[in-house]
Design brief:
single chain; globular; 4 helices; Rossmann fold; 4-stranded parallel sheet; 110 residues; alpha/beta
Length: 110
């Protein structure tokens, strides 16, 4: 059941909202104004470690996916696959599982 949905205009506001509210899930992109998504994920994990982070991004390089997951994200969905994978990813992440888009599967290992 969804209680509240918030939207941030940039990375700094996403961090502020995570401090102000007890968020279950944050959807992030890599390319955000003011701070990139990976730095935002790091800061949210420091401030609100129970908040789960799921990246939804057009970026699909192995280094970016690994960086996002290393920053504390529980999942990564490539935007081109979001239509078929986003709801599955959200449910998996909320259950405490890791989800990686089929387009980048295998990128989550070293």
């Amino acid at each position: 059941m969804c209680k509240n949905i918030l939207e941030a205009l940039d990375g700094e506001e996403a961090i502020e909202l995570s401090q102000e509210f007890e968020l279950d899930l944050v959807l992030l992109d890599i390319g955000l104004p003011k701070l990139n998504g990976i730095e935002v994920a790091r800061r949210i994990q420091e401030l609100a470690p129970r908040t789960k982070i799921l990246f939804v991004s057009q970026e699909s390089s192995a280094d970016v996916v690994r960086g996002a997951l290393a920053a504390g994200a529980c999942g990564y969905v490539v935007k081109t696959d979001a239509g078929s994978e986003l709801v599955i990813a959200i449910n998996a992440v909320l259950r405490g599982e890791r989800f990686v888009s089929s387009a980048v599967v295998g990128y989550d290992s070293k």
